[in-house]
Amino acid sequence: MVIIMNLIYVTISNEEESLYIGEKIVKKRLTACANIISDMKSIYWWEGNLEKDNEPILILKTIDENLGAVMAKIKEIHSYDNLCII
C-alpha cells in the first residue's frame, strides 16, 4: 500500500516559534515529521514599506485525512495575521 504524503510550507517569524508550532503538531500526531529551515531571507511589502527579514520555513508532512486539522492548528497558534501556508 502506497501512502501519499502532503507537504505543507509555512513561513514563521522566528526559530523559537517554528520549533513551538512544529512540536505541537507532531506531538498531536497530526504530522509524521516537521522540518525547519532556519535562515531563509524574505523580501516583502508590509504596511507600505519594503522589508527584508529572516523567516524560518516550517515544512510539515501529513496524510490527506489530517490535512484540515493541521491547517486549523497552524492558524490557531501562528503569530502572523496574514499567513503563508502552501
Automatic annotation (TrEMBL):
**A single GO BP annotation from the record?**
response to metal ion
The UniProt entry, under Pfam families, shows: CutA1 (PF03091)
GO MF annotations, alphabetized: copper ion binding
Q: Which SUPFAM superfamilies match?
A: GlnB-like (SSF54913)
Identify the InterPro entries for this entry. Answer: Ion_tolerance_CutA (IPR004323), N-reg_PII-like_a/b (IPR011322), N-reg_PII/ATP_PRibTrfase_C (IPR015867)
In terms of superkingdom, the source organism counts as Archaea
Q: Family, per the entry?
A: Belongs to the CutA family.
From the Swiss-Prot or TrEMBL record, give the protein name.
Divalent-cation tolerance protein CutA
Organism from which the protein derives? Candidatus Methanobinarius endosymbioticus
> Coding gene?
cutA
